Amino acid sequence: MADLDRIMALEVTGFDPGHWEARHVYAQRVEVFPEGSLMAFYEGENIGCVFCEIWPETNDNALQADHFALGHDILERHDPVHGNTLYIASMVLDPALRGRSLGLPLFQGCLTTMAQVYNQLHSALLLVNATWTPARRIYMGAGFREVARFEGFFQPQAQPAQEGIVMRGLLPRS
């Protein structure tokens, strides 16, 4: 339960309220796929987390906005036995530590860990808000590229709707 409390604290401090996932969504992710619920520690403190799902192969031209919907049920697409695409559902780093070059190692650590545990994975997908330039730099630094856009996907509070960008990258191989 303490991990879930920390996850929610990171969610609240790391994202605009229009981007928050509900507590029950994270609870389901941890219950259904604990191996894809990764917590990051720095100097003994929990500073971030990454949540993943394993999806069946999806052609970039067939990606649909509802696949990425906030609050989606992990059981709709998650298939750790037959799936071959890692979906990064959420990644957050404590805002107090942003700008210290910790985001890329957090992201790459997730990709490396998941590729080692799930040999069938070959690529990863994620959705990022078009206005989150530092996050997009992290993903591009890991070799990800834009494959789709969804107009008005994000609905931040007291701001106009914002575009979502789907990015895909290959997983590291040892």
From TrEMBL:
Source species, domain of life: Bacteria
Record keywords: Acyltransferase, Transferase
Gene3D superfamilies: 3.40.630.30
Transmembrane annotation, as ranges: none
Domain N-acetyltransferase: 1-172
PROSITE patterns named in the record: GNAT (PS51186)
Assigned EC number: 2.3.1.-
Molecular function as annotated in GO: acyltransferase activity
Designated name of the protein: GNAT family N-acetyltransferase
Origin species: Giesbergeria sinuosa
